[in-house]
Amino acid sequence: MRGPEKTPKTTILGGGAWGTALALAALHAGHHVRLWARDGEIAKAITKGKNPRYLPGIAFDTGIEATTDLQTALDQTDCVLSVTPAQSLRMVLNEIRAHMPANIPLVLCAKGIERETGALLSAIVTEILPKAPVAVLSGPSFATDVARGLPTAVVVAAQDDALAMDLAARFSARNLRCYASTDIIGVELGGALKNVFAIAAGAVAGAELGASAQAAMVTRGFVELRRLGVVFGAQPETLMGLSGLGDLLLTCSSTQSRNFAYGVALGRGEVLEGLPLAEGVPTAAIAARLAAQHGVEAPILSAVAAILAGVITVHEAVEALMTRPLKHENLI
Ligand SMILES: NC(=O)C1=CN([C@@H]2O[C@H](COP(=O)(O)OP(=O)(O)OC[C@H]3O[C@@H](n4cnc5c(N)ncnc54)[C@H](O)[C@@H]3O)[C@@H](O)[C@H]2O)C=CC1
Ligand SMILES: O=C(CO)COP(=O)(O)O
């Protein structure tokens, strides 16, 4: 991919919180960083060392070359990070197709499953950019923590172990430790599904159902996550790691998580319109459908999808979950 003496050239697609934080991490790892944002004001602000819309109150180093021009962003790049929301991936890949240099790795950093098709994001890349080696970066990592330089660990997965190791080394820096994995599906599924359970945990907190209920929700949610992992072909142990258990622990316990905060608003019966991006919302609907299609027992997932669809209330969902037939504590 690159000689050791050359400065890595990294392109970030997306000028939101995570795109900006990862651009900074790459800058601190010594890369030449270009960032594509569709909004000119955001691009200008990032070039000046701030992103008040998505990272309010954080001033950061200048050096990221932000642009609204895709050709400029992708010119002679040797690695692309895709950091726009999961549901926009297909559109973004179709836009970059004409400008993407051949055989350059595309690292997926969004967390979700395509709502319309049930496709994992790596499958969408294979469909639209078949020549791009695909990788996934995921794990417990709030953009604000990474942008502030706080210690964070993630996992980078690629089918080819050498690529996974190379990318993990490329993006690791003093405050960002990247582990390598060859289980792309496990790593992406862990990140996508934890968002749904973060909404559930937030709803429990918002409805003031207590810390015991919250622990039960997260634990049983983790069982459902692992069951879906089996269906998709994830390696079970991957979901015990940073992308899976690690990200579940982070986002099911902190209002810093937009998915958890969305759940809190749901549990309190507040207005949901205008809340920040909560990737678990579209993913809940499709994940519940896939679970039903494959005969996977996933009552929490189904409850979240039904609440979001307005079919039941949080309290009705809890009542239904608590009165299910008694059984052994099946852990898979
Ligand atoms: N914020 C965080 O702490 C983390 C976020 N992620 C994931 O990263 C992804 C992006 O999240 P954030 O950056 O936080 O979201 P954000 O809401 O802060 O920013 C999203 C950005 O994508 C842009 N965008 C949306 N649709 C687009 C399109 N069709 N074409 C071009 N640009 C488009 C928006 O203009 C905005 O700049 C999500 O999947 C999220 O789950 C992953 C780890 C941490
Ligand atoms: O994925 C994240 C941290 O790992 C960010 O979570 P939210 O999208 O819920 O804010």
UniProtKB/TrEMBL annotation:
Gene3D superfamilies: N-(1-d-carboxylethyl)-l-norvaline Dehydrogenase, domain 2, NAD(P)-binding Rossmann-like Domain. NADPH binds at W18, R38, Y54, K111, A143, R258, L277, E279. It is found in: Cytoplasm. Signal peptide: none annotated. GO terms for molecular function: glycerol-3-phosphate dehydrogenase [NAD(P)+] activity. Its main location: cytoplasm. Its EC number is 1.1.1.94. Residues 183-319 form the Glycerol-3-phosphate dehydrogenase NAD-dependent C-terminal domain. The active site is at K194 (proton acceptor). Residues 10-163 form the Glycerol-3-phosphate dehydrogenase NAD-dependent N-terminal domain. Sn-glycerol 3-phosphate binds at K111, G139, S141, K194, D247, S257, R258, N259. It catalyses: sn-glycerol 3-phosphate + NADP(+) = dihydroxyacetone phosphate + NADPH + H(+); sn-glycerol 3-phosphate + NAD(+) = dihydroxyacetone phosphate + NADH + H(+). Pathway: Membrane lipid metabolism; glycerophospholipid metabolism. Keywords: Cytoplasm, Lipid biosynthesis, Lipid metabolism, NAD, NADP, Nucleotide-binding, Oxidoreductase, Phospholipid biosynthesis, Phospholipid metabolism. It holds the Pfam family NAD_Gly3P_dh_C. InterPro entries: 6-PGluconate_DH-like_C_sf (IPR008927), 6PGD_dom2 (IPR013328), G3P_DH_NAD-dep (IPR006168), G3P_DH_NAD-dep_C (IPR006109), G3P_DH_NAD-dep_N (IPR011128), NAD(P)-bd_dom_sf (IPR036291). NCBIfam families: PRK00094.1-2, PRK00094.1-4. Belongs to the NAD-dependent glycerol-3-phosphate dehydrogenase family. Catalyzes the reduction of the glycolytic intermediate dihydroxyacetone phosphate (DHAP) to sn-glycerol 3-phosphate (G3P), the key precursor for phospholipid synthesis. This is Glycerol-3-phosphate dehydrogenase [NAD(P)+]. It comes from Aquamicrobium segne. The gene is gpsA.
